[in-house]
Amino acid sequence: MLGVQSYLIFNGNCEEAMKHYCDVFGGEVQFVMRYKDAPKNTGMDTPATWGEKIMHANFIIRGVQLMASDSHPGSEVKVGNNIQLSANFPKTDKMDDAFNKLSQGGKVTMPLQNTFWGARFGMLVDRFGNSWMFNQDLGDK
């Protein structure tokens, strides 16, 4: 079954925001990966000063899982592009077809590709201006 989740993007204060949301609503951080934890040969040119910033995190508030990260340096977050929808596909779904259909009339910002974290992943902005991330575990493909 396809899962779609909200993905919150921050300008370097993701950790502070997650802790605040969890405190306010009684939530819990489940997973954190920092930019410094990414392999060096990924093509991501991240400054050392950004190493402690959050590349990806999951947290749960009242049974709802949210995902979050600090935007990559040089990609300033503004109101309107700070929330993306993340479509997570199991092995039984055709992710490439959905990605191609949703990108029609929009803009692919990262083509579908295999990643170092073990998933096929891509990003796009659809023709309505909404930002999407597509993810499918390679083990599920």
Structural overview:
- It is built from two helices and eight strands; from the N terminus they run βαββββαβββ.
- The protein is mostly beta strands and about 140 residues long.
- It has two domains: about 70 residues, 2,3-Dihydroxybiphenyl 1,2-Dioxygenase, domain 1; about 55 residues, 2,3-Dihydroxybiphenyl 1,2-Dioxygenase, domain 1 (Roll), CATH 3.10.180.
- An eight-stranded mixed sheet has the order 2-3-4-1-5-8-7-6, with helices on one face.
- A hairpin with a 5-residue loop joins strand 7 and strand 8.
- The protein is globular, with a radius of gyration of 15 Å.
- The protein starts with a strand and ends with a strand.
- The relative contact order is 0.20.
The CATH C-level name of the largest domain is Alpha Beta
CATH fourth-tier homologous superfamily of the largest domain = 2,3-Dihydroxybiphenyl 1,2-Dioxygenase, domain 1
Per CATH, what is the topology of the largest domain? Answer: 2,3-Dihydroxybiphenyl 1,2-Dioxygenase, domain 1
Number of strands: 8
> What class would the helix/strand composition place it in?
mainly beta
Approximately how much beta-strand content do the residues carry? 35-45%
At CATH level 2, the architecture of the largest domain is: Roll
Can you write the helix and strand succession as a string? EHEEEEHEEE
What distance lies between the first and last C-alpha atoms, to the nearest angstrom? 14 Å
Strand order of the largest sheet: 2-3-4-1-5-8-7-6
**What is the overall shape?**
globular
Output the number of helix runs: 2
**What is the domain total for the residues?**
2
- Stretches where pLDDT is under 50 for at least 5 consecutive residues are none
